[in-house]
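Structure tokens please, single chain.
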Amino acid sequence: MPSVYVAMSEAMQEWGSDAGISKHLYKIAVTEESPEDAVKALNADGYAGQQDWTFLDAREAPAVDPAAMMKRVGERLKVIDPLYYPKIKGAKDIVRLDQRKVEANIVIKLTMEGRASKVPKLKPKDMAGYILDAALGDSSMGL
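Here you go.
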């Protein structure tokens, strides 16, 4: 069964911060193999010029169309244009997140669940969950 996964690269995030894009850059993709193996392949290939990709999170997605998924992601999140940033070497599935939107989304979810709505300290797994919600069409996203 296909899976949608999110990976991050510390070097990519450092470059994004230095370039003024954002330090919150993540890769999203669909794979038929295990997501961990797909991330190992990213490192072996030097995807987007980086070899330090780490797996963050994945969700099974039966009958997911990668093109439709990326269109949905592009409507909700900022996808980095590889033509504008040649450093990422043609990678078309790197997304940039706005930390405030992710925090707001988590606070809204906590409030709706009736739990304390304190702004959490975000972890990469929280960011990955937000991206996966956007990719798979989770209607509870606060966008």
